[in-house]
Design a protein that fits this description.
By secondary structure, this protein is an all-alpha fold. Helix content is 80%, strand content 0%. Residues 1-41 are annotated as: Disordered.
Length: 41
């Protein structure tokens, strides 16, 4: 019961969908951050 309350069914698809998006966004954010830092420097 406690586990169900801590991890509701609505949160189950949330982390699963964030995992693949995070991996795909990770390189994109890293490249964008590097470009922004290079432009600022």
């Amino acid at each position: 019961m406690d586990w169900n309350k801590k991890h509701p069914p609505a949160a189950s698809p949330f982390p699963i969908q964030t995992q693949p998006t995070d991996i795909k966004k990770r390189p994109f954010i890293k490249k964008g951050r590097l470009k922004q830092t290079r432009r600022q420097v």
